[in-house]
Amino acid sequence: MNRREVSLLVLVAFIVGLVLALVIRFPLWYSANTKEEGSTSRVVGESGLAEKRWRVPVSFPTNLEVLGDNIIYVAGLVDSLSNGRFEFLIAEPKEIVPEFQIVDAVREGKIPAGYTWLGYDQGKIPASPLLGAVPFGLEPWEFSSWWFEGGGEQLAQELYARDGVHVLLCGLIGPETAGWFREPINSLDDLRGLKIRFAGLGGKVIERTGASVTMIPGAEIFQALEKGAIDATEYSLPNVDQSLGFDRVAKLNYFPGWHQVFTSIHLTVNLDQWQGLTPQEQSILETACTAGVTRNLAKAEAVQGPIIASFAEKGVTANYLPEDVLRELNRLSDEVMAEESANDADFKRIYESQSAFRADYAHWKKFAYLPRDF
Fold this sequence. Notes:
By secondary structure, this protein is an alpha/beta fold. The chain folds into two domains: 35-173 and 262-302, D-Maltodextrin-Binding Protein, domain 2 (3-Layer(aba) Sandwich); 179-261 and 303-340, Periplasmic binding protein-like II (D-Maltodextrin-Binding Protein, domain 2, 3-Layer(aba) Sandwich). It has helices at 3-33, 70-81, 102-107, 140-149, 152-161, 200-207, 221-226, 238-243, 271-276, 279-309, 323-343, 345-368; strands at 39-44, 49-57, 86-91, 113-116, 165-173, 179-181, 195-197, 212-214, 232-233, 252-255, 263-270, 317-320.
């Protein structure tokens, strides 16, 4: 056997050995690194760096500007900050999880994370709406101050850790509209008997006026409004509501959004998944979500003016609720908050924290800013 033949045999033996090693190694890698449905992870090379692909369902269609598209910005940051090693695979509403059941799926480990409004948990976690929207509550920058600097985040983690969920503030927008109506609202009597779509604590408040409240997903509101299943609706910001077509059916848009002075959206992460992340990976998610909060609020504030300016050409009228109606809604809100606090210790603790922060902040707010009609 000559030298060339020997070299060829050595090469063939090396290749066969390499293939056998991979065949044996793959099942071990797969069992060690594949998680539950919706989450995959694998070790990359000798560095030990992990690649993660998380299936992340959302409560709002990503084609809704401001309300839905913020998660795309956040996902891009996660990808960029991790150099492509951490990826969110976004699932649209109902694609794998219904809009109102995202936290349930995260809690049960069916998905690693989801992007949603925590007010949808009201039936199971009475204090959850306080983390999503509060009638006559904190304004957006006040809420973010309470969350990051006033103990809000710690209270939220304590509340959700019991259910095996870690929450990250990941989106924030300003006041919603007070609703879209076919007939004028001059007094609370005009709400009595009205069939209206409402969410969260605001829904409990407006029920006390005699209105009939229903909660349906955003994608189903237009059809319900058009067919007369509901008489009026609230949902989100003017740009979002317009994209859903409410202005084509109900021509009276009322302000201000007393029921949701702020609206916050959270990235909810299965607690075992969160604890399994490295400190660097946790920091990536925290950084991306914090940036998402800032950019979300900035975009939300930037796009509403032109929408309202275009109302006249569409036959839509922007109206301000009479002050006596707002005062009465405020009184009813205080009643609801007091009753919810009496019925649930978590609600009481979180609401008292927000109220104390608001009272302290009022000293600064009173003197620091120009009057709003200046």
